[in-house]
Amino acid sequence: xxxxxxxxxxxxxxxxxxxxxxxxxxxxxxxxxxxxxxxxxxxxxxxxxxxxxxxxxxxxxxxxxxxxxxxxxxxxxxxxxxxxxxxxxxxxxxxxxxxxxxxxxxxxxxxxxxxxxxxxxxxxxxxxxxxxxxxxxxxxxxxxxxxxxxxxxxxxxxxxxxxxxxxxxxxxxxxxxxxxxxxxxxxxxxxxxxxxxxxxxxxxxxxxxxxxxxxxxxxxxxxxxxxxxxxxxxxxxxxxxxxxxxxxxxxxxxxxxxxxxxxxxxxxxxxxxxxxxxxxxxxxxxxxxxxxxxxxxxxxxxxxxxxxxxxxxxxxxxxxxxxxxxxxxxxxxxxxxxxxxxxxxxxxxxxxxxxxxxxxxxxxxxxxxxxxxxxxxxxxxxxxxxxxxxxxxxxxxxxxxxxxxxxxxxxxxxxxxxxxxxxxxxxxxxxxxxxxxxxxxxxxxxxxxxxxxxxxxxxxxxxxxxxxxxxxxxxxxxxxxxxxxxxxxxxxxxxxxxxxxxxxxxxxxxxxxxxxxxxxxxxxxxxxxxxxxxxxxxxxxxxxxxxxxxxxxxxxxxxxxxxxxxxxxxxxxxxxxxxxxxxxxxxxxxxxxxxxxxxxxxxxxxxxxxxxxxxxxxxxxxxxxxxxx
Length: 629
Hints:
nine-stranded mixed sheet, Gyrase A, domain 2, 3 domains, eight-stranded mixed sheet, single chain
């Protein structure tokens, strides 16, 4: 849904729709990702007085992003955490099981099947599914009265809980064994064992409910890992051993599953559920006397309850009356909204622990409302979508209540995600992940009317920051080469980034030589990791990936003198004499200004213009207006 009554906060721009920017130069500040405490983050900055959506699209494709009206680009070779622009083609998007689960969870909540409240561990264990039975539970209609959807929802909550506990056990296991710390470990996935599969297993497996093959994934990952830590390295003398501080550790699914099972027994206190390691698998068994199934769903039934049923006591819970909810997604032009600001304050204080006094309307406007983008209204043809091009706030409302706001830019080729803030009371809906799916759908929907709009930009991807790696779960994605500005498939780029934080991604041809992984192996490894993230993970707070630039004119930033830091960049032909300058409202080419300024001023200004042309590119620099103040 699109509302057109709200006006843009700062989309006026210069007459005729031109881009006017002022070069800030190189900046050095503290890093919000590695949190080193040093001014180790280096970027190049521009202030945009006005910016056409076409110029901003081209800036995105050269590694730039915006925070309000401030444009910034990481200096990839020198910054502590190189940030690669990441995008995916919406039509090619293939959702993972976890992403589909997020959509199903939202739908169950809207249908009134699930109320979203956290269940006690006893409920997760299946106690709420325990039914009294008389004659061997012959009255199947009573069981079905619980409702298949409610039963599946509770079982899914239990699977989520067990998967998260496996993740905790993996971290504890890795720490205790001093395993590589710079490796992205696979997420634990617990699956239900189907009735047909149990029939093929050995006798006595009828009590087996769930299983996980995480141990096999860990072994595959660790055998490929090439750690820089001298204390943790792969041994070349024994194929299935990992040398840890001088001692040999058996690197096999059997031993790892036993380690994880021992750890899980201390983490999980779920009634009627036991954990065992079997041939490398982690198995979860029901400990009650009998397990009956209804349409291949497990329902634990203790014999003691048969006495109550035989006496005629109806203790089967009644099916609750469902109350459906209405979700609205409303697209507004970027403007200040008091309701949105109140939600932003709540989000920042409860999710990011910001001090309430630090969250002002001015800082909020500067970060998420102000925009230099010049709005392009719909033209009625297939060149502009029905909402137009520009900066927008996408509101998510359930029964009229504002629960989330996505800040996005809709551009000629893409939808660029900037930031998302949401109501902490609705954290159980994984709104960060859900909004990404909706924004991808928005691209697909608009593409029908505007074929050139094909891509979804997720902001920056930082391979060295674990909180940012979730973006690669939206597949198939591409990363922008920081040197040649070519798009490289993530599965090809990943082995390069595993070896070094900064890499010229377009040099992927070198992967066929030396000891790098083949271009096929990364995809296989990612498939094993299931692209899964825990719902409680802070990654939902990092959608768009730009929050660390929220205070772009911070006093902690330090301007640096220009150096030949781009000497390794490929030569791009351009003539600084052709650059259009804005001098106190007057427009003239630099070659015209040269005639009236001193030689010393010429040298100083020409160095600035050359630096500007290198980071922006010759075509864009000649198209935009360079403001001299």
